[in-house]
Amino acid sequence: MPVWFMRQAGRALPEYRQARGEGRFLDAIADPALCAEITLQPVRRYGVDAAVLFSDIVVPLAAIGFGVEIVPGTGPVVESPFRRAADLSRLRGLEAEADIPYVIETVRLLVRELEVPLIGFAGAPYTLASYLIEGGPSRDYALTKSLMHADPDLWMALMDRLADISLAFLAAQVGAGASAVQLFDSWAGGLSAADYERFVMPASRKVLSGLAGAGVPRIHFGVGNGELLGLMGEAGADVVGVDWRVPLAEARRRIGPGRAVQGNLDPALCLAPWDVVAGATRRVLADAGGQPGHVFNLGHGVLPATDPDILTRVVDLVHAEGRAGGAP
Asked: Domain residues for 112?
């Protein structure tokens, strides 16, 4: 059974804190040697079956000069949020070789070094839009939903621009050697199915279908998206990520045949004693039912307070007791 963890590289690892040091997060992303080292750390420690590129979903937005900063303890913050049609001019296309050469070089370094596949990733248009409109993280996405409904034409133009940026970001990673990609629509779970299908799904489909001929698996992931699982599968993914709220067997039913599932251990449970974590891991494996097309993962990212040794034991348990199948 293959296993990797979202946000497996980062704050939970003491070696990450030592390598990362102080300074701007985006400056660290611009250092290919440092990013490659941070990406490799969890592969060495945990024995996971894939590395996930150390980066951030707002990197391409910062690279084109939209004015995004990653603030410690807060996350992405936008200096001048998106508010009106004139702001579309600030979202020029991403020219990968010129704008993100450091990301491309990081991927190339990793491909030479790794013995496991490298997963690249990007933010989905809706989640990127929510940061640009809200100006930072939000609990209710009120400004985002207001723009979506009040000015649908502007909204769709924004989503189309962001789809092009996300696609260019992913295509650059694949071109440099990434073996798979994940599209993060982390905040789409706050939408109704009707709003997702009308306002969000077309842009996500544009990104995923744009990689249809790239020859790499495409993973689509969201949080709190139980009511959207079927639609997210229809958007064009080969694999649909499932958070901890929906059992895998039910998730398979909602997603339908022909797609694999990824997930879905609650990351908060990894803070519990090992016997609790082991029991929860076995329940995920049992719920997967030995059916083909399951990648073990958490239902969201590794929490900073997680004991790295717990994750190592989860990997060992999944490898020992998980039963992988063939294509879904």
From this structure: 14-321
